[in-house]
Amino acid sequence: MGDQFYRAVVGADWPTACALLAPETKASLEQTAGKACPAALQDEELSDPGPVGRAVEYGTMTQVRYEQDTVFLARFQSGWKVMAAGCSPVPGHPYDCRVQGG
């Protein structure tokens, strides 16, 4: 799912990228930006994360580490959705993510 999301982002297919976001993440992005998801997501300036380094599944959640990014996914009845993207580690703290749910 993370790969599909980033293919859409790199290809500037914002409607597809937005459809891959978890509902809470999409709502939070729109509320914070004051714009519809496609325009708000484009403003985040996410870039190609590079190759996948490692994916670790924790039940209904998955962390996917790319060369230059980390993405968090959650499993919903409709399938896997992106909960957070554009994430980088912060020593001693949770990840700092450009796109995330409330």
Description of the structure:
The chain is an alpha+beta fold. The chain has a single domain (2-100), classed as Roll (Nuclear Transport Factor 2, Chain: A). It has four helices and five strands. It has helices at residues 2-10, 14-19, 23-33, 37-43, and strands at 52-58, 61-66, 70-76, 79-90, 93-100. The chain has a five-stranded antiparallel sheet. It is globular and about 30 Å long. The protein starts with a helix and ends with a strand. The mean pLDDT is 93.
SSE order and pairing:
Blueprint: H1 2-10, H2 14-19, H3 23-33, H4 37-43, E1 52-58, E2 61-66, E3 70-76, E4 79-90, E5 93-100
Antiparallel strand pairs: 1-2, 2-3, 3-4, 4-5
Short description:
By secondary structure, this protein is α+β, with helices and mostly antiparallel strands. The protein has helices at 2-10, 14-19, 23-33, 37-43; strands at residues 52-58, 61-66, 70-76, 79-90, 93-100.
Radius of gyration: 13 Å
Helix fraction bin: 25-40%
Q: Beta-strand percentage? A: 35-45%
Q: Helix and strand succession?
A: HHHHEEEEE
Which sheet architecture does the biggest sheet show?
5 strands, antiparallel
Spatial strand order of the main sheet:
1-2-3-4-5
Number of domains: 1
CATH architecture: Roll
What distance separates the N and C termini? 21 Å
Structural classification: alpha+beta
Oligomer: single chain
User: Count of helices?
Assistant: 4
- According to CATH, the fold-level topology is Nuclear Transport Factor 2, Chain: A
In terms of per-residue confidence, which ranges show pLDDT below 50 for 5 or more consecutive residues?
A: none
